[in-house]
């Protein structure tokens, strides 16, 4: 089977960046082709059982990991909607100090111009119904975190999400069964398609075709889902531009396989996090309420604490012990809460294509100073849990007593000689492998997010972030893609008038 098609713009990826670009450019009257490696899943197709859901929508069944001595999972969405289809829809505007740093150090003042960004943030928030989690959807997990934060005088707040009609089913990780979360597969992808955009799902982009220094087409394989085996080939041609929005791991892989080098794949950054579980006397009811509803941002300490509800089968795997001991814990499954610390790590890694590990190799190791921030975050969570009334706390740190039974034992976490292999790390926020900079010597793309080396080739995802954000990146990804797409659309209007 072979498919050929042509449009003004070809977009690789349907996550926060790609779908937003499709939304802006289709409204501007440009014809759009969207390519997505994963399947297209309707809300009613999302299974309750976690294993099946992860197989459907996460790369490599959520087993894709970093390489090196202490590997840890990188959660990567692989379906229409990308990571937005499997995250909790947390919305944070770009912190002002981050925008200033990008302007001063990387010459990106035009890209992150405050008035323009504010206008775009407000538009997205209005279109996607961004609001605080409603009181009835906060759930026991979030309520306990609020109690712990208040008891310790920490600056907690109810999370803002793009799911104002959330019913509190705690199924964000499996995919919202009600379509309440306005992830890209239920918002900007159909918006673009209603304006003529064409979507090819289960279509893996493998090469951007460059002729005469200009991006002209994208080639790849049509996949047979759910196995993901090739069943044919496609080649789609772009009259105006190719936009790569496959994320901080697979955008650099695609660009390198297309012949780009220099800084492509360098400066990989992330928000790795560790989690703490606590047992409470009264039922918590993790399966009721928003998956994530409360947070404690501590930017001055380099991390953010979030409530994170788990499906029962995943929570059970986090409980300590074996045999009868584990069964006793399992008998009180409804009494557990879980909170996590996401760290703004300073470590830099790199991404390269690979014929193994799902097609990419990510080398990344937290630095000692990063681990100290994580250690502080885990100790803070332990203190918060005891302040909220926990009877037992499981810090998830190798070599420490399990469980902890007294608030003073938080000092054991403080004093631990923590190494990367001593804690279960997971990262769902990844950045920086196609760094944006006004200077070609310091970046892969410029302030318009167009490649410094190839004309009409753009990158619009978190890989263009020159530094680590410290907060959830989805809103900023969308705003940068919107800003760059507006500029591209305006260029096309001027060409047509000329």
Would you write up a description of this structure?
- The chain is α+β, with helices and mostly antiparallel strands and 498 residues long.
- It has twelve helices and 19 strands.
- The strands form four sheets. Strands 1, 2, 6, 7, 8, 9 and 19 form a seven-stranded mixed β-sheet that branches. A six-stranded antiparallel β-sheet has the order 4-12-13-14-11-17, with helices on one face. Strands 16-15-10-18 form a four-stranded antiparallel β-sheet.
- Helix 1 packs parallel to helix 6.
- The protein starts with a strand and ends with a helix.
Describe the secondary structure blueprint for this structure.
Layout lengths: L1 E11 L3 H12 L4 E4 L14 H8 L38 H11 L7 H14 L3 E2 L6 H14 L4 E2 L1 E2 L26 H7 L3 E3 L2 E9 L2 E11 L4 E16 L2 H11 L8 E5 L2 E8 L13 E5 L4 E5 L4 H7 L4 H8 L5 E8 L5 E5 L6 E4 L4 H20 L2 E5 L15 H6 L14 E2 L25 E3 L14 H24 L1
Parallel strand pairs: 1-2, 1-9, 2-6, 9-19
Antiparallel strand pairs: 3-5, 4-12, 7-8, 8-9, 10-15, 10-18, 11-14, 11-17, 12-13, 13-14, 15-16
Helix pairs in contact: 1-6, 1-12, 4-12, 5-10
H/I helix tally: 12
- Overall geometric form: globular
Q: What would the average pLDDT be, to the nearest integer?
A: 93
Low-confidence stretches: none
Structural class: alpha+beta
Describe the main β-sheet briefly: 7 strands, mixed
For the secondary structure, the number of strands is 19
Percent range for helical residues? 25-40%
Residues in β-strands, percent: 15-25%
State the separation between the terminal residues, measured CA to CA: 40 Å
Radius of gyration from the CA trace?
22 Å
